[in-house]
Amino acid sequence: MTLARALRAWTAPMAQVHRPRDGIRGLVAKRRFQRGDLLMDVPLRYCYLPHASRDPRRLRRWNRSALFPEAQFWLRRLSPDAPDEGVSLTASVSTEDKKVITLTLSPVEASVAVSAALRYFWRKVVLLKNREGVGRPPLGPPNFHPADLYLHALPIEKYLSYGLEGPYFSDVEEEANVHSNIEQIAWNLRDCILSCAPQEEYAFYDAHPSELDATLLAAIYVLRARLLRMAAVFGDDQASDRVTSVIAPIVDFLNHASVGHNCAACVSIPRRAVVVRAVRDIGVGEELTLDYRGRGQLRRGATQNSWGKSGAEEAEESENWWESRYLFSAKEA
Length: 333
Prior knowledge:
Elements: H1 2-6, E1 10-11, E2 14-18, E3 25-29, E4 38-43, H2 56-62, H3 71-78, E5 90-94, E6 100-104, H4 107-126, H5 145-153, H6 156-162, H7 173-196, H8 199-207, H9 209-225, E7 228-233, E8 242-246, E9 255-256, E10 263-268, E11 273-278, E12 287-290, H10 311-314, H11 321-326
Parallel strand pairs: 7-10, 9-12
Antiparallel strand pairs: 1-4, 2-3, 3-12, 4-11, 5-6, 7-8, 10-11
Helix pairs in contact: 3-4, 4-9, 6-9, 7-9
């Protein structure tokens, strides 16, 4: 995988293929794996932890990821303690039965979505050539090969080609309301982008308003769909484990399976990496899948801290929990 090399990540022999039954891309094993085998090791410096802390300064400290260089600017701009006027990342809508549905993006989710959307906008919509070295300032995000490789792996173009509104304006009212919330947040982000844009960049945004809106909306959907919940392992003491959410490139190539998944992932603080291991024996050609909700990785009674809610609140206990936890001990993670 070219992206794996760019991120200095390690992966076991596997291949990305399209599933015959539905055409969805996934990863399959190229050799037989045994339970506990290491499948992926992705450096944490290229990942994002959207809910690592409620404190804005600590949240920025935990999210100094090198994946999107421009994300640091947007994270500072979208944080609640930003010196400029704040950007609302919360939207609410009232239903016919007088319920209120509210959706909130974390500043990290929003900054990564904006970074991906603008990189796609300038690379795929405007199609401007690089102007570095010609005496004029470059337009759009800076050139960064790992970010462009990850952008290429995101299905933003497919989301745009299929259309986002159709599936959500259905008989399921709640889905339509969630879409309305995401749309409102996307508009707020667009206004923030326009207010921060230099005059020359603003002219391009103004010339392609519908493309900018659609790209922002698609980026939010794509990034939220790739938000993984997993245990953060700080050491051998199980009581220190926490549940957190992660945006982890390469790991998010694994498709979600709530039942029958054959992989488990954790944030290994000692290794400073997101680690994926096999939870059972896997045959050659078998698809590698992961439970995106990370259920069953924490024991009941774990305490709560800024990394997220405790295992008792967020994770379902499985009968063989201790076996899964053993896969991610501090020494073996």
